[in-house]
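Example: Leucine carboxyl methyltransferase 1.
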Amino acid sequence: MNDEPVMATNDDASECKRGAVQLGYWQDNYISLFAKQIQRKAPEIHRGYYARVKGVETFIHKFLKKAGESAQIINLGSGFDTLYWRLKDEGVRITNFIEIDFPSVTARKCYIIKRNKQLLEKIYEQDGEVKLSSTDLHAGTYHCIGADLRNISELETKFQQAEINFSSPTLFIAECVLVYIENDCVNRLLSWIATKFKSALFVNYEMCNINDTFGDVMLGNLRARGCTLAGVAACKNLETQQNRFLNSNWQGSKAWDMVEVYYALPTTERQRIEKLEFLDEQELLIQLFQHYCICIGWLGTEFAEIDINDR
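Written out as structure tokens, the predicted fold is:
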């Protein structure tokens, strides 16, 4: 399987995020260090990324509220995500923060971190010593590790190196990651997590409702770029997204399309970003939102009550 086109989606996403941040959709003081170019996209795309970033953030904060300072975060297929540094700026304390991606992606990320004082300082603040290899970085509470999510034994070894605590409440984040992995590999990964962790919340942002014309166009665009979408069967609808967790021994699962997620965000914030760029008509945006979702799965009863609509 050729993983290069999948890795290239990281650069696209980083450039889109930088473009949206520059226009004022949300604040991120670090994305410009990872994405040097800006891809100016249509307003619908910027709003889509805004909903994605803020939607996932909503669940991160709901998790942290329940988990407290013993929390761990594991960002699967993290690419050039800047979450660790943004949470640091908010004063959030986390016991362990682990980012995992293909070794060639983490090698680039480690290189960028190493060369940027602004990034290194945040890691040094409480962690002192930084251990670097060509693809991995370990520094107290922050770990950036190169691994293939399809290889559970490699993952287990890397987790041990990152001093993971299987007893601590753990948040897993995956954004447009599982769709590129064969279903049996995803099921194996989810089942393995369910046997290892007592208390966990998994937040998955991904495509859904793809069995229509709009979905065909989306999938066609990705396939044209060489992305094989090995796990697309789980993206059929919200139910198939939830079943992936329920069939892998997770205690429960819920899912919302991005229309619901977007309108659950604070009204004042929505009104603010809707003034940033003129949108000719809402129809395309709504269609886009209908074809993406956030699905959560949980282990342990403490996360069962989490919902996009609770305040």
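The two ends are 43 Å apart (CA to CA).
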